[in-house]
Specification:
Radius of gyration of chain B: 20 Å
Number of strands of chain B: 2
Largest interface: A-B, 31 and 32 residues
Number of strands of chain A: 13
Oligomer: heterodimer
Number of helices of chain B: 16
Radius of gyration of chain A: 23 Å
Largest sheet of chain A: 4 strands, parallel
Strand content of chain B: under 5%
Structural class of chain A: alpha/beta
Helix content of chain A: 40-55%
Structural class of chain B: mainly alpha
Chain lengths: 409, 339
């Protein structure tokens, strides 16, 4: 018992000293495990190996960015200790790594863990531990659910908001459209279709004339395209991953179908979709984006793009600048730095979520002009704006205004 | 445990006792291992307890493969499928029908036994690499079958299914992780004892006779077809229990958790632990859980290559896996005693 009181006395003395040292009440330092006067421990889980290993570059870009932040003096004097583990995109491994980060490495929070199945596996765990699962790298809509999962937040525009934006555009510019939808039969495809139907509202039933789904195991989706053409639709909503997107664009041209062709952002890549499909087949395809395209000459003299290229040159020279993963990792790391700056000396789990949920018109210059990050205690979807783009020649051309849509999970 | 060892010790009078004894540990060693398994969690962090639980149920899955390959001489690269079925049966029963977890495991075992027995029928016509290929097909198909639309109502499709972790019963003063560890330990021990007994029984001898020489076995009156499919069924059933335990421990099942990679890992675990040596299963499981983490610690970008090098070293230095290490250790102890 005396030992305990001794400890208590020491603790209260320490507290008193801290209170004296920090004269103002607002500057009082508060920490949860993982944060100290000199360090913030940030956990991350990425598929560095396995089927989704191409995304691992996002984690490596983030590590490089935090190295830059640390060399420049850190955040409010604290260095970021970024601990990133490999889960090979396997949910049980994600659980093991998340528990290792939270219980063994004692990180302050887990940041930008990648993939819908891996994040689903730790969703409940993180929320029962009340440790933030911040800015997860997946577009599923369910991450925006502050009511039931107050410790989880997404970052990129979710799939539903993207098709909502297409729906808005269609209702305005082509209200008599007959829409044919092709989607991948999984959570990603279904999320997109739901956004489209919600966006069209009461007119969904009459405007969508055909829906076809395909399995990733199918070698080709040609038969679906032929079937969709036969319905007489004049708008084609192409919700497919890159390999199938290229097939679809090619087939649509081959059978002489000339619909207004919408391609989801997932496959809006020049290198992996438009080029293999043939540029001549992809003319006038419409998509949407929220990040600047590194290969687009429009940004050649853009200050934000120059900063990004300078960062890549100095801290991550071996990384592929044209890989979308690098600019995504760069932008999401910048968003985290902003949240940590806002936290000041109050580095508790509560305050991290509170600050992450109070981003007001925050911009990283990797985002397209006009796209802003906004969150609130009821809005856990940081980026919910996109700009439409049309494929012209050999590149995407932006058109129209930035359109927003907020969707909850 | 000791009961099993006694039974095995009794088997001394049989001439072919050597392979059977070689499949287990001596009584003293088993007691030490058992004591360690009981005591360690009392002093460990929750995360370590979780890893130990993983070790136990993966060890169980490796043991199941060991019975099939080490016992009856049949190859399988499809264990992940049975593991997945077991996990899903448990998860669906627990979450959709609110059945207590300890009742789900026997059901998972029975369902997987059935699945394994049925799969064993076509497997009868195949052997060696061809059988490996057929089971490989099963493992590749499983994640897609779990995504099927008409099952989605129960399985949650690609989204998977979140499982609630059980609390310790009777108000026992232990955390969920610790309770689950001891629960898993009891289940694994029970199955271990069952397996040891199975292999020393009439059926076990039939398995081994088939493994050693199929024609000779049938000439001696062993029903080759029955025992081959039986071995598949038993192995699948045990794998199903392991899968069920994994679903409870990980608290989540999704099709992506049960890919061919898992089957290959289990196969790897069996080889590293020593084919046909049951205690090696735990060593094999430890290898597939911890060595990738070590490899990642050495080099993140080249973790796969580092893992490959470590695996190569193990196979090159101790081709019979942990079993060989154990035998070497035993000989060393014997020498020391003589001196």
């Amino acid at each position: 018992m005396p030992a305990v009181t001794g400890k208590l006395a020491a603790a209260s003395l320490a507290l008193a000293l801290i209170a004296v040292a920090t004269s103002t009440a607002s500057a009082q330092k508060k920490y949860d495990t993982g944060a100290t006067d000199t360090e913030i421990k940030v956990g991350n889980i990425m598929p560095y190996s396995g089927p989704a290993s191409a995304y691992g570059i996002i984690g490596r870009t983030e590590a490089a960015y935090f190295k830059k932040i640390n060399e420049e003096g850190g955040i409010n004097g604290r260095k970021i200790n970024y601990i990133s583990y490999d889960d090979a995109y396997s949910p049980p491994k994600t659980v093991e790594q998340a528990r290792k980060l939270v219980e063994s490495d004692e990180v302050l929070f887990i940041f930008n863990s990648l993939g819908t199945p891996p994040n689903s596996a730790i969703h409940k765990y993180m929320n029962s531990k009340k440790v933030p699962q911040l800015f997860v790298a997946t577009g599923a809509t369910k991450w925006n659910d502050p009511q039931n999962f107050p410790w989880t937040m997404g970052w990129q525009p979710n799939y539903q908001s993207e098709t909502q934006i297409y729906a808005k555009w269609l209702l305005k510019n082509k209200p008599d459209a007959k829409i044919a939808v092709l989607y991948q039969n999984d959570d990603y495809g279904k999320d997109y279709v739901k956004g489209l139907k919600d966006g069209l509202g009461a007119k969904a039933a009459s405007m969508i004339v055909a829906e076809e789904s395909y399995e990733t195991s199918e070698p080709t989706i040609d038969n679906h395209i032929v079937k969709l053409k036969s319905t007489g639709a004049d708008v084609f909503m192409n919700i497919t991953t890159p390999k199938f997107a290229a097939q679809a664009i090619k087939k649509v041209a081959e059978i002489g179908w000339k619909p207004l062709h919408f391609l989801n952002n997932v496959s809006a890549s020049v290198g992996s979709v438009m080029k293999p499909a043939g540029f001549e087949n992809g003319q006038d395809v419409i998509s949407a984006d929220y990040l600047k395209d590194v290969s687009d000459p429009e940004w050649a003299n853009d200050a934000g793009m120059k900063d990004f290229l300078a960062f890549m040159g100095k801290y991550f020279p071996e990384g592929d600048k044209l890989d979308k993963g690098t600019i995504v990792g760069y932008a999401v790391a910048q968003t985290l730095v902003q949240v940590l700056k806002q936290c000041g000396d109050d580095l508790t789990h509560e305050n991290i979520m509170k600050q992450a949920a109070s981003l007001k018109d925050f911009r990283t210059e990797a985002l397209l002009p006009g796209v802003k990050i906004n969150t609130s205690p009821t809005d856990f979807a940081p980026i919910s704006q996109l700009q439409l783009e049309k494929f012209k020649g050999e590149k995407w051309e932006l058109f129209g205004d930035v359109i927003s849509a907020d969707v909850g999970g | 445990m000791s009961a099993a060892e006694e039974v095995v010790a009794e088997g001394n009078e049989a001439v072919e006792a050597v392979p059977k004894r070689a499949m287990t540990l001596g009584t003293g060693t088993s007691l030490v291992v058992l004591l360690l398994l009981i005591a360690v969690p009392l002093f460990a962090k929750n995360f370590v307890i979780f890893q130990l639980t993983q070790l136990l149920y993966l060890g169980l899955a490796v043991l199941a493969l060991n019975i099939l390959t080490g016992g009856s001489g049949q190859f399988s690269l499809g264990q992940s499928a049975f593991y997945g079925i077991g996990a899903y049966v448990t998860a669906v029963m627990m979450e959709q029908f609110n059945i207590p977890y300890f009742l789900c495991l026997p059901v998972a075992a029975v369902v997987c036994f059935g699945a394994g027995f049925l799969f064993g029928q076509p497997a009868l016509r195949l052997s060696g690499v061809y059988l490996a290929l057929a089971t490989f097909a099963l493992a590749t198909a499983m994640p897609q079958l779990l995504k099927l639309n008409f099952l989605e109502h129960w399985t949650g499709g690609v989204q998977g299914l979140v499982v609630t972790k059980p609390d310790a019963p009777f108000g026992l003063p232990m955390g969920q992780d610790m309770w689950l560890y001891y629960f898993t330990l009891v289940v694994v021990l029970a199955i271990y004892i069952f397996s040891v007994n199975l292999l020393r029984s009439r059926s076990g001898r039939a398995f081994m006779a088939i493994r050693d020489n199929e024609i000779a076995a049938s000439a001696m009156g062993v029903n080759v077809a029955l025992y081959k499919t039986l071995a598949f069924g038993v192995s699948a059933g045990i794998t199903g229990v392991a899968g069920g335990l994994s679903a409870i421990a990980v608290q989540f099942v999704a099709p992506d958790s049960f890919t061919i990679t898992l089957a290959i890992q289990l196969f790897l675990g069996m080889v590293v632990g020593g084919v046909g040596w049951l205690p090696g299963s735990i060593v094999g499981a430890a290898f597939i859980i911890f060595v990738p983490n070590i490899a990642e610690g050495i080099s993140k970008g080249l973790s796969g290559a580092v893992f490959g090098v470590l695996l190569f070293l193990v196979i090159y230095l101790v081709p019979h896996g942990a079993r060989q290490v154990a035998i070497l250790g035993q000989q060393l102890v014997g020498k020391l005693r003589k001196n």
